[in-house]
Amino acid sequence: MSHLNGAYYGPAVPPPKSYHRPSHGGGGRDGCCCGCLSCFCGCIFDCILGLICKILTTIIIILAVLAFLFWFIVRPNVIKFHVTDASLTRFDYTTNNTLHYDLTLNVSIRNPNRRVGVYYDQIEALALYEDVLFGNLTLGSFYQHHKNTTFVSPIFKGQRVTPLAKVQVSEFDKEKGSGVYTIDLKLFMTVRFKFLLFKSGSLKPKIRCALHVPLKSRNATTSPDAAFQPTECDWDYGKKWWIH
């Protein structure tokens, strides 16, 4: 019983067993298969992406070359519009908001292109004073050959209820004193272009002509210091026109 005189801690405890969880990324057979599949899929994706980039690059280069060749052969130029003459024999605004007018315009349309013709399928001409519409009409359709100048003559005559704001009436009275009126001509068109045997789809450009038109008296003389100056018109590139 001598062993009872010393400390006794019981039997020795065996060390715990270590547990190694199998890795999913490598080592085992399944991990090897997944790694190979991932690498294969990555290679396929890279090949497809590279092929798409090459195709897009080729298409862009071809389109750029075609556009350059078209420009080099056709050398397209912008159609030019001018109001060469204007005759205003009546422009009266009465107390019942009615505008009486008699306005004749002469508009030149210049096609400077050597190889491009223009179909004018429709031209709507609008006359405005202080951004308020007082006259509109539709001009006849026609075809314009290359290197050609065509003249159209819209005539606005009649009367129309044209409500003007107080500030607009004040501007009208001021211009009545000077004998020169600020009138806008706007052209809404439907056109097609022709190159050799090819025709483009319909386009709808808009043209604006800011005019200063002197009032002519009945004896065909103009107001003092008033003479109409030929005016070049501007193309509208996306700006909206609000017609009141």
UniProtKB/TrEMBL annotation:
Residues 107-208 form the Late embryogenesis abundant protein LEA-2 subgroup domain. GO terms for cellular component: plasma membrane; plasmodesma. GO terms for biological process: defense response to other organism. Its main location: membrane. It is a single-pass membrane protein. It is found in: Membrane. The chain crosses the membrane at residues 55-74. Keywords: Membrane, Transmembrane, Transmembrane helix. Signal peptide: none annotated. It comes from the Eukaryota. This is Late embryogenesis abundant protein LEA-2 subgroup domain-containing protein. The lineage of its organism: Eukaryota, Viridiplantae, Streptophyta, Embryophyta, Tracheophyta. The gene is LOC100815702.
